[in-house]
Amino acid sequence: MKKQESGTTPKLSTKTNNDSQNPLLELFTSGIRDLYWAENHLVKSLPKMISAATDPKLKKTIESHLVETQGHVRRIEQIFTLLNEKPIAKKCDAMEGLTKEGEGMVEETEQGTVARDMGIILASQKVEHYEIASYNGLFKLAEQLGLNEVGALLAETLSEEKLADEKLADLADKEIDYKIADKA
Ligand SMILES: [Fe+2]
Ligand SMILES: [Fe+2]
Question: This protein's superkingdom (predicted)?
Fold first, then answer.
């Protein structure tokens, strides 16, 4: 948010939408728009990770999270409706960077290797942690704003992100065991 210098009273404050009257709600709505972009971007990015992965369990985990992610997009659309806002996406630079990192992992590793699968898991867990932090923060903001229905939708997605992260962590443990066993 821009700070106004003294003596330069903004004339733009004739705007009458709710956002401009409640900075916390403005912050919240901006976060929702950011997540809307992020989740839509993941719907496009996850199929690349599915086809790059080798381990069938890893493929399946990402496939089922892709279906959940499509649900996350729909939940955010429900949130826009509850907020009386149009579904507008605001580019999320963090998610763009995180998915680029995942694609970089694929480029740097060979098809069919444990290294590639591990790279995909590591990159995917960073994505989940970003989502967990975002949903957790927005859930708390929703509570402060008294947006209970919105908060319940955020909590549902938050628990799916946490579970996805746990599944990936389990797979990482198994992949590491596999690598050690392979070397023995
Ligand atoms: Fe998500
Ligand atoms: Fe996720």
Answer: Bacteria
Helices (H), the chain: 23-52, 56-83, 93-108, 114-144, 148-183
* Count of Cβ atoms closer than 10 Å to residue 110 Cβ: 9
Q: What is the mean pLDDT of each run of 10 residues along the chain (184 residues)?
A: 48 45 94 98 97 95 98 98 97 97 96 94 97 98 98 98 97 74 56
Cα(174) to centroid(ligand 1), Å:
24
CA atoms of 8 and 19, how far apart (whole Å): 22
What is the C-alpha separation between 150 and 142, in angstroms, rounded?
7
Closest ligand to the CA of 129: 2
Which two structure tokens, joined as six digits, stand for 120? 């995909």
Distance 80 CA to ligand 2 centre (A): 19
What's the CA-to-centroid distance between 161 and ligand 1, angstroms?
Answer: 6
Q: Domain 20-183 belongs to what architecture?
A: Up-down Bundle (1.20)
State in Å: Cα 145 to ligand 2 middle.
25
- Closest Cα partner for 54 from 177, 171, 140, 153? 171
Q: Structural domain boundaries of the chain?
A: 20-183
